[in-house]
Amino acid sequence: MRQSALFAKTQKQLPKDETSANARLLIKAGFVHKEMAGVYSFLPLGLRVLNNIAKIIREEMFAIGGQEVFLPSLNPKQNWQQTGRWDTLDDLFRFTSFYTKTDYALAGTHEEIIVPLVQRFVSSYKELPLAVFQIQNKFRDEKRAKSGLLRGREFLMKDLYSFHTSEQDLDRYYQVVKESYDRIFKRAGLEVIYTVASGGTFSKYSHEFQVLTQAGEDTVHVCEKCALAVNEEILQEQPACPQCGNKNLRPEKAIEVGNIFKLKTKYSSAFQLAYKDERGESREIIMGCYGIGLNRLMGTLAETSHDEKGLVWPSSVAPFQIHLIALSGVEAQTDKLYDELSGIEVLYDDREEVRAGEKFAEADLLGIPWRLVVSDKALAQESVEVKERKSGRVELLKLRNITNFFAAVIS
């Protein structure tokens, strides 16, 4: 991609009401544009990051047997009435059609759609267990959208729903998903801590995946002995680690990037979702639910992976792997190098009207993992300057070794 043709540009003016580091960095670098409180447009660079996050999630969901669907955001009122949530869910967007006078909901979650859908196709124990997931926009009428991408009114979410014949099988798959989530966050460049939360009306516990950072909205309490964490609600009920009993718990600010629930039969009962067992007897299907917010994950990366100069993207989610910069007078040589790197995702700063210092500052702001600078001085040594964004390490690399070097460092 030639930077001269890039649709979105870096910004000097930021929204006055935007105080979170993640949104300020992403807006300034031209990754997102704020439309209104809690709603953002993803620009080409930002969408590339979001798609890379989605790619990691999809690969891990497929690896644990998930089948992908795409469910509607526009939901019929009667489905939400059947679960009782039309009147009780505080942040549900509800509206009436101007033409048909029909009431609808904009989905903030999708149990009301997935359960009757599964009911159409599953009736026997032989068709279970089943795992179905989607990556879809959600809408929640947040009273106060805040913290940039961390708490929005419209956002992208991965939902996985699992369907089982027994609680034992749900327990088994719950652990499979937990391990899958560990891999997802590690691949995305985040260090998460497994956190015990209330299970609400579903079960004794649910679990969150929290990233420790002072930018966090949540407070979790980390066990000094076994490194498990509990959230505030659990600590009020039980002032000790539920895993090892240790009472020495350290409070930390954190951002929740994922959660998993044992729904059991709450929604199965609402829709009479059942299966016939080996004896032909009808039994309720047992469910699990597993979520990851993609916007939130991206915002968390921006909060935790930046320095005073700008963003520092992990290679796995970066919009490009290399930021190639041509200094004045070496455009022809840089064009040739750009062609040679065609098998790698490269953002080529070919802008002739922009000074070198501005190019370097923008490269640091964008946070692409590697910067290649082509200059007369380096070319005189048959080399280019290579800088790793994360470490700041700079070295000269021979032109003949460039493709082999990046084949080794970019996985």
Which properties best describe this structure?
30% helix; single chain; 30% strand; 2 domains; Rossmann fold; alpha+beta; 411 residues; 5-stranded mixed beta sheet; 5-stranded mixed β-barrel; BirA Bifunctional Protein, domain 2
What would you say this structure looks like, in words?
The protein has 411 residues and is of the alpha+beta class. It folds into 2 domains: 3-307, BirA Bifunctional Protein, domain 2; 320-409, Rossmann fold, CATH 3.40.50. It has helices at 21-28, 44-63, 77-83, 111-121, 167-188, 232-237, 266-271, 294-304, 331-340, 356-366, 376-379, 402-409; strands spanning 32-36, 39-42, 67-68, 74-76, 93-96, 103-106, 130-139, 154-164, 193-198, 205-212, 218-223, 229-231, 249-264, 274-276, 282-284, 286-293, 306-307, 310-311, 322-326, 346-349, 370-374, 383-388, 394-398. The strands form 6 sheets. Strands 9-10-13-11-12 form a 5-stranded mixed barrel. Strand 11 (218-223) and strand 12 (229-231) form a beta hairpin. Helix 1 (21-28) packs across helix 8. It is elongated, with a radius of gyration of 24 Å. It starts with 20 loop residues before the first helix and ends with a helix. The model has no long low-confidence stretch (mean pLDDT 96).
